[in-house]
Amino acid sequence: MSQSRSVLLLLCLLLLTPLWIQLYRLWRRRRRPTLTAVPAAWDDNLRRLSPLYRRTPAELRLQVVTLALDFVAHKRFVGCNGLQVEPRMQQLIAYQACLLIAHRGLDCYAELASILLYPGAFVVEQQHVDDAGVVTAARNVLSGQAIDVMRVVLSWPDVLAAGGADDGYNVAIHEFAHHLDHALDGRLSAPDSGNRWHELLEREYHALCDAVDAGEATLLDPYGSEDPAEFFAVATELFIELPRELRARHPQLYHSLQAIYRLDPATW
Questions:
Q1: What is the pLDDT of residues 8-20, one digit of tens each?
Q2: What distances in angstroms separate CA 155 from CA 36, 60, 200, 225, one per listed residue?
Q3: What is the SS3 assignment for 31?
Q4: Which residues lie below 8 Å from residue 115, measured CB to CB, with a gap of 6+?
Q5: DSSP structural state of residue 2
Q6: d(CA 80, CA 93)
Q7: Tally of structural domains, the chain
Q8: Mean pLDDT, all residues of the chain
Q9: What is the spatial distance between Cα 75 and Cα 87, in angstroms, rounded to a whole number?
Q10: 257, 79, 238: which is closest to 180 by C-alpha?
């Protein structure tokens, strides 16, 4: 084959690649089962384990479970430190992950390969660099971590704790919000993108920082004052777990998150 024909073939392949990706995604969507009811095993487990599932409207619940079935089929769940992964664990995590993308589709998680589950909080070795460039090593005990676009790490007891108290805590929602932000190259939490959402994000973030510095009680978890990315994840937790409180005290933030996720949990 001549060099010119080889170059032409390569160009054709490059041009056709996006088309093949779209065709593959369409094929996967058509392969998803059409559910008329949530499978009994899923319904039994999720009703028992998840207050969030119980208050989700029936039509949306069915839509989310349809996505979650595909999620479980294509993502790898890995038990760490001796934890044996059970179907109920996969179902609970997949349901919460897919609730966030119910109106966006599973393509949002295209790069996610695995979910690592620990039997409790886990230790992560991290390095912190201060403004002077001094590097400090630290051992942090975490309940969840979105390491990159390929992995999400969760403590199973912390996943189970979601919705058990009126504290807005949901580690799975928190980490999958981070994953979505990572998958979009930080565009959900970057404070300098120049649109209304990012102007609001920056304003709300700095208001939380000021309140935390002043020792004031806040609806948003003070952990959100760490940086804009943590603020976005914390705000997403609250949006899902305590939506009416968020809407009452931070209406602009609530309505912006409503637009991002295309959900209105305050009405559930």
A1: 565 555 555 554 4
A2: 33, 27, 32, 23
A3: helix
A4: 75, 76, 77, 78, 93, 151, 152, 153, 154
A5: -
A6: 16
A7: 2
A8: 86
A9: 13
A10: 257
Range of the structural domain that residue 99 is part of = 34-119+145-163
Judge whether 93 lies within some domain.
yes
For the stretch 110-152, pLDDT in tens is 999 999 999 988 777 665 556 666 556 566 777 788 878 899 9
One-character DSSP codes across 186-238: TTTT-TTS-SHHHHHHHHHHHHHHHHHHTT---SS-GGGGS-HHHHHHHHHHH
Token match 């024909």: residue? 5
Structure tokens belonging to residue 141: 């005990």
The CATH number assigned to the domain holding 243 equals: 3.40.390.10
Are 132 and 111 in contact by the 8 Å Cβ rule? The answer is no
Q: Which of 144, 156, 169 is nearest to 51 (CA)?
A: 169
